[in-house]
Specification:
73% helix, single chain, mainly alpha, 0% strand, 238 residues
């Protein structure tokens, strides 16, 4: 009797495995698509920063408001002091880098790009993380193998998503995300801070932090690729 039931059981298991493999193929395709979008958005975010940082795109001055009588007295006193400091050597002026292909770019273009890319980046990073999670669930339910690879890929993508979200804008905390607003970029670039420490924090904020997120995304994608190969090898497809 057990031998008579072995055939239907094996057939049912093969059907379940086939269904799980079809689901894996779907999640794998969407995962790769979201990964590509995340990389493109991260590149655009970094390019926007360097366009402003190198002076290729200038930030327009903030609009001025009418001065009160007390402020006018303060401005007059400041002008008097500035006359005494006129003989001091002037600080080096930041020159705008001239590139023929980018001369038509303005701050308005950069601002709109950052606002659009921020939304797409947060959305696609979240969907990339969800695709990893569903791939993990399918692998567990279908017992396809490679659990260690897809589990690590999921947690790496989850950390990446958490680091992308601009917490400084959402909850006003000191914890920052890779995604930044045009106002935040303008504040850092036009800031009066100086010194080695300020420079280090400046580039860590906009480049070092960004590099960490890119590294996490690549590591997560690489782990998921190992998971796919582990499944195919286990099922003797390759």
């Amino acid at each position: 009797m057990p031998e008579m039931n072995e055939g239907p059981v094996n057939q049912s298991h093969m059907i379940e495995t086939t269904d799980c493999l079809e689901a894996v193929g779907i999640f794998r395709g969407w995962k790769n698509f979201f990964f590509l979008l995340v990389v493109i958005c991260l590149v655009l975010v970094q390019a926007s920063f360097w366009l402003v940082n190198l002076g290729i795109v200038e930030i327009p001055p903030a609009p001025t408001t009418p001065l009160t009588e007390l402020e006018a007295v303060g401005v007059a006193a400041a002008e008097t002091v500035s006359e005494a400091e006129a003989l001091a050597p002037a600080a080096p002026v930041r020159k705008k880098m001239r590139l023929p292909l980018l001369e038509k770019l303005t701050w308005e273009h950069v601002r709109r790009t950052i606002e659009l890319v921020d939304g797409v980046l947060i959305l696609t990073a979240g969907l990339f993380c969800l695709a990893m999670f569903f791939s993990l669930m399918v692998s567990l339910i279908g017992r396809l193998g490679g659990i260690s690879h897809i589990a690590r890929a999921f947690f790496l993508s989850l950390i990446m998503f958490v680091l992308v979200v601009p917490w400084q804008e959402l909850i006003g905390s000191s914890v920052i995300g890779v995604a930044y607003t045009p106002a935040e970029l303008a504040k850092w670039v036009s800031g009066d801070g100086s010194g080695v420490m300020h420079t280090v924090l400046y580039y860590l904020r906009f480049s070092g932090y960004w590099f960490l997120v890119v590294l996490l995304a690549i590591m997560s994608q690489a782990r998921s690729a190992r998971w796919t190969k582990a499944i195919l090898r286990r099922l003797e497809i390759i």
